[in-house]
Design goal:
31% of the residues lie in helices and 24% in strands. It is an alpha+beta fold. Residues 255-264 have low confidence and may be disordered. The two termini are 35 Å apart. It has a six-stranded antiparallel sheet, with no helix packed on it.
Length: 264
């Protein structure tokens, strides 16, 4: 059996944060480099330290570490660790992994940034916005439930982007979730008072979505107003959207704890 000696590095990091004594992240990374630990292990150590900083609101980097980082941000950021990784910190995939760790940690424990703003850090990767939105499922999966009055008819876990509309001819009757095409069906195909592509939904933050009315003629009724054809809005979750025969609710998983009051 092969032993994974990288675990003691994470134990040392946890010890530092739990006791505020011992080796900080810079010293632990030096040990990891001396052992020729894989880059992924060193990235994971940085990600763990960043999460500890966000969870506790405390600073981990020593004076020498701060000098190494050169420009320390007020909010714990991936950029704080690029220099600590030496030449490997300049590798695009290493920076991307650290940025994604920052995105998940800040979305759970920090200021919950908007996906479009965060994605500007790698402007050449157009697909990264979608990848970041999908990472939010690790924190709080997006849920969609159909209701007839007070009765919940069905519930599904849904992706970061999907469409709401009436059914196509080959789709099931409403209410239904078409997982293959990422479509929420809220009316049968013969119901002409709703477009097949009525609303586009995109997750832009842990607890916030963007809605675009794709219809050329038909407005959509939200719980606090009406979204006219061609209009766009952002709304916090949970959100209720009303249709002729059903209403649906978009929400986050209810068992996710966002507060740190009892978590550290």
């Amino acid at each position: 059996m092969t032993l994974d000696f990288s675990f003691d590095l994470f134990d040392r990091l946890d010890h530092y944060w739990n006791t505020h004594s011992g080796d900080d992240i810079e010293a632990i990374l030096q040990t990891a480099s001396g052992r020729c630990e894989p880059l992924d292990v060193r990235i994971d150590l940085c990600a763990a330290d960043l999460e500890w900083r966000l969870r506790t609101g405390a600073e981990s980097l020593t004076a020498s570490s701060r000098r190494m980082a050169k420009k320390l941000s007020s909010i714990p950021r991936a950029i704080d660790y690029f220099k600590l990784l030496g030449n490997d910190g300049n590798l695009p995939h290493a920076r991307k992994q650290l940025l994604e760790a920052e995105w998940v940690a800040r979305s759970r424990f920090g200021d919950r940034p908007y996906v479009d703003d965060f994605a500007c850090q790698i402007p050449t990767d157009e697909a990264w916005v979608g990848e970041l939105s999908k990472l939010l499922d690790l924190i709080a999966p997006l849920q969609l439930s159909f209701h007839d009055g007070p009765e919940e008819l069905t519930q599904s876990q849904v992706p970061a982007q999907f469409v709401i509309g009436r059914a196509n001819r080959d789709e099931p009757d409403a209410p239904a979730w078409n997982a293959k095409d990422c479509r929420a069906i809220v009316a049968n195909s013969q119901f002409r008072s709703l477009s097949r592509m009525q609303l586009a939904v995109r997750r832009v933050r842990v607890e916030e979505i963007e809605l675009i009315n794709l219809s050329r003629l038909i407005p959509s009724k939200l719980e606090n107003g009406v979204l006219k054809p061609g209009e766009k809005t952002r709304r916090p979750l949970p959100l209720t959207i009303y249709f002729t025969h059903f209403h649906l609710e978009i929400s986050c998983a209810s068992d996710v704890v966002f507060s740190l009051e009892n978590d550290v």
